[in-house]
């Protein structure tokens, strides 16, 4: 059996190398302005980028090429290369976005991967329009890909092209149903334009209602996504400390030790006052000032074409909705769900 597996891996190596060569040959033919935005995506690590798109299309070079070309066209049409020069102003509005779209970077894993905390359960998305939330999400992606990852790669002397995400389900309740559409839009943007950027998703502080949904959503996920998701018990502290130091642990994973609550306020990676968000916001303001030294920054969101959610994403959203309703009606749920 082992021999077969090793043979399979070897064969996969040949297949993947061929696919990389094919896709590279296709991408070498790309002209401006797509060429410039492609360089902005790969940041000098072209092969790693080709591999990400190939993985997302099961190593089919033609499909990966189509996906990558559509991504480049989306970037050019929506001026994504310039989005880090478009601050969300005034600051109070941006603070509102940060207080209701809970995401932040808490540090790095021991392997050098950036660690992002996401407050799935407590994000309300009710302080701004959809466009601001999409703009903010893409800006964090672009800052990660053009500033944080290249800097980590330089520090470690090897390509660091992915991150770790820790999803906090604290506060997850029925009102989350109203946010499913926006969250599906954001995840579709990621799937189509930032594929395979997350190494592992750790899910923590899981309430009963999530356990119920997870059991039915899990089979709908693609196998490569399913393999990346790890549901941890409690706040996940002990498991996460195996791959990162305590300084990099998101604040919502620190709650199991007494005396850590006052610590949490200082290290709340969602807050606009956290060093990550301060650096990001200052970076965006500086980029904006260098581009338009005379004209004042205008208030208004940066409109990005919103994608049609993929059929799979729509199916998952519908399944979650139906499970939430079942949960409320109290039918069809067994106590054993808590164990999953």
From TrEMBL:
PANTHER family: CRAL-TRIO DOMAIN-CONTAINING PROTEIN (PTHR46226), SEC14P-LIKE PHOSPHATIDYLINOSITOL TRANSFER FAMILY PROTEIN (PTHR46226:SF6). This is CRAL_TRIO domain-containing protein/CRAL_TRIO_N domain-containing protein. Residues 90-250 form the CRAL-TRIO domain. InterPro entries: CRAL-TRIO_dom, CRAL-TRIO_dom_sf, CRAL/TRIO_N_dom, CRAL/TRIO_N_dom_sf. It comes from Cephalotus follicularis (Albany pitcher plant).
